[in-house]
Amino acid sequence: MKFVTKNKFIRKKAVEKQINKANSNTALEKQQSMSAIIKILIRVFAKAFSRYSLVANTTFLDIQEFSWIADLESNWVKIRQELDLILNNIDAIPNFQEISKEQYSITQDNLWKTYFFYAYGVKAEKNCERCPETTCLIEKIPGIKTAFFSILLPHKHIPEHRGPYKGVLRYHLGLIIPQPENSCKIRVGNDILHWKEGKSLVFDDTYPHEVWNKSNNIRVVLLIDFVRPMYFPFSLINRFLIQLISWSPFVQDAKKRQNEWDEYLETSK
Prior knowledge:
Layout: H1 2-51, H2 69-74, H3 76-87, H4 96-99, E1 112-119, E2 122-123, H5 125-130, H6 132-138, E3 144-152, E4 157-161, E5 168-176, E6 184-188, E7 191-193, E8 200-203, E9 209-213, E10 219-227, H7 234-246, H8 249-267
Antiparallel strand pairs: 1-2, 1-3, 3-10, 4-9, 5-8, 5-10, 6-7, 6-9
Helix pairs in contact: 1-7
């Protein structure tokens, strides 16, 4: 009787394992289908977003186009002060690829660290609580979708890459910029600029771009992705696609990894 009961138990476990595997495969297929749909929609609307943009389609854009930048620049010291506190425990800050596994294609070392506030509209609550002044300032930005401290350790080079989505623009606020000035630079397309502390850059990251920190010190900017201003109805289409992206496996996986990192930090105190 015990032998029969044991066999039933083994068969039951085997069936449960097959069901779990089938459910896992179904979930993976749904995720892959969703990602494929989003990529198709992004390709379909890319040219339209360029044509109906309310701002230039150049590599770098004139910061005077964006009135909210003045508020960030006038308060950059407050942001820097909160950054300095975070950097006191720099080893606890995750590498970019530990939060977003898609970044493994451009960085595999420990020299690019990221402290997230937002990712495609998803808020990193714990990180925001640690930096209330910075959070308050970035939440005033119209159409903010992603925000984080981008921290490059000495001699880090980010190879050429390009963003996938024309519907957002990228902003950098210089917070810690090593000297001499030309030791750190960014190339977008064929144009090269250098950061300055308390000063801003805006660029279209769908152009090929790369970054260098050739100095012996860290370089930190506040990186923000915000919604590209567009004519109606493409402004609505753009926001709809951005919402789809926020539901995608790519963003949800990053959110899960950020939560896991928060738990690790809490338990390691």
